[in-house]
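Before going further, learn to read the protein records used in this course. The integers have meaning only within a learned vocabulary of local backbone shapes. The record below shows the convention in full.
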Amino acid sequence: MFTTYFWNKYHLYRQKVIFFTVLSCIFVVGLSSEATAQRYEYKRIYDEFYDDKIVHFGFLFGFGSSRFNVYHSKNLGSGSTSDSSVTIVSPGNFAFQVGGLVNFKLTDRFDFKTGLNIALYGREVDYRFTHSPNFPAELRESTWLEIPLLMKYKSQRRGNSRMFLDAGVKIGIEANVRKNAASTKRLDTRTGDLSLEYGVGFEQFFKYFKFTPELRFSHGLTNMFIPPTNNNAYARDIQRLNAHTVTLFLMFE
């Protein structure tokens, strides 16, 4: 009997060896797959077809600092009377903006951005006179309607984020101005402005919206200064005033 079933017994052992070998391979492959999955964890992509749309709408808030770039005339410091100004500077004051935005897709890398913003500025001109060092400053609190026209270059999207640069111009129209009662005859400025703008930002996609912080710089191209009809001490030493603003925008689309 032993001789009769000798090969059958070894055939049975071979089946067991093959079975346990295959089981061991499956176990090793499973551990390897689990380790790979832990190393390359799946990350959910939000709104993955966002760039397929041509137009996007949103709103924004802006917080920053605004001032005048003061260009002095040749008369500065030339006088010796009590009404001769020694220095004229414009410190930065808080600025706030709120508005809507529209983003048009041009190509895979370029967009066109525009919108309508309401901006609140408190630009100040600070005078120092020869015999009156503590003279009050000229504060101009005003509300502006602004329309930015920007070209935007965006990087390739990596997961739920990407960087971008934008640059262009901004058209501004002053809606109203509030002057100090004592300064109505000191300094006057124009009610329209054209500015050069550029900025850098970061887009982060979430489940229901896209959040975009951006740091933007604005340099006024228009001379805001209006020469006075009378030769007063506050304006005769100024040749040119240009608006300058630095703003951190928080945009939601």
